Amino acid sequence: MNGDDAPGALVLSGGGTTMVSTDALLAQAARLALLRADARDWQARLERIRALEALPAPAWSAEDPGLAVFAARQTIDAVEARSGELAESLVVAAEAYGQADRTAAMLARMTGAWLGHSLGRLAPLVFAAAIPAATAGAVAWLLGGLLRRDAPGTARSRGPGTARSPGPDVAGLWIGDPRLLANPAVVALVRVLVSSVDDVAAGAVGVPFPVSAALGDEGAGLFGVTTTAAGTLAVARSIGMLRETPVTVTRVGKPRPARPPGGFADLAARIPRVSTGGPQVRIERYGGAADAAWLVYIGGTAEWSPVSAGEPWDMTSNITAVAEQGAGSYRAVVQAMHEAGIRPTDAVIPVGHSQGGLVAAQLAAAGEFNTVAVATFGAPVAKVPVPPGLPVIAVEHSEDLVPALGGAARDAAARLTVSRELYADAAVPASPLPAHGLVTYRETARMIDASPAPALADFRTLLAATVGTAPGVASRWRGTRSGSSGAQ
């Protein structure tokens, strides 16, 4: 929603509704609805006062209080009618924009699927079979090179005396302009392309396009990003890459006191930062033995090599998680949760950034724990099936490439997506993937806390009710890969 929206405004979509709107517009609609409710309350009061009037209206004099009550009733009736009309108009406008947005997204998916299918029909089968691996390899190489480059303010920046990290120099791909990868149009294109890779393979093996569309992302969802990731793993593992291993977890340091989070800013601030050798998971416990509630914070990718080493938060886990095959990072988080003492009936709210957000959503989808809400920041969670009725907040920046790597969502209305365009009227920082950094998402989280949008206020209320007001205890955990890197 552009038009008169302020640069960087929060845009809300989904959350069980068909609306797409800014948080300010939704908040205004909510205020008008409250005004209408107050007007109806005053209508009822004035009606009770009028019932006490002994004289009928024709007998009123200029000084009769009944005349003043009648005038007040007329004014309140106008307020009630006008506020209701304005509130309904705002909702209708948001729903219309949402319908147009979903129609455009559907047409983009269908067009991408048709083009991919057509390419598959023209390409040899061997070429098509290699496309998933080539796509994943190119993405891994590109992101790995970007995140290894030295850039001020990034988590991977070199410290004094630190040698340059090995990796490809992809500065040439930027063509001197970082907007190439921090462009909402490029991000939208990548989302469509990722969702269309399976259609290339379907076209190559001769599956008719209507059948491919009916079974793929555009239809039943039996094929799509998940199956493409699975095909990528099959090809990559045959040449010694992206191989999963057993994982182990250890507690880092001693438990520390923790105060209940007050909102999204606190949630984002407690997600572990990417660091070599540091903890990837933070677990907070609140309440007593009978009513324990837990917050599980999960960090993002720390290693971008396609060859599994000691770090479970790596490219192997990225692809394996998308393929829904039990990523090392997912298994490490589950182990840490068990060792921390989380029981199946305890209330849990997982929170994560990037790969950590993907793991958080998959924890909710698996159903092993009693997940009561989920919050993700910059995570490729579009294809993770959201349990019906579960409050899920997915925060994404329009220029962030990483959420697009999860493809296009078919059940977008089931989760509340909060998006923000960072650089609409500002220069893009000269750093790799600037819109994906945890620092920028923490800034957006503070904006979310300041938003009066009802859906965001409801999530904050749920968070407060879950953890309570008493101090808790926080523990930090580190997962490591063990065993042979050739394990499957």
UniProtKB/TrEMBL annotation:
Protein origin, superkingdom: Bacteria
Gene3D superfamilies in the cross-refs: alpha/beta hydrolase
Protein name: Alpha/beta hydrolase
Record organism: Cryobacterium psychrotolerans
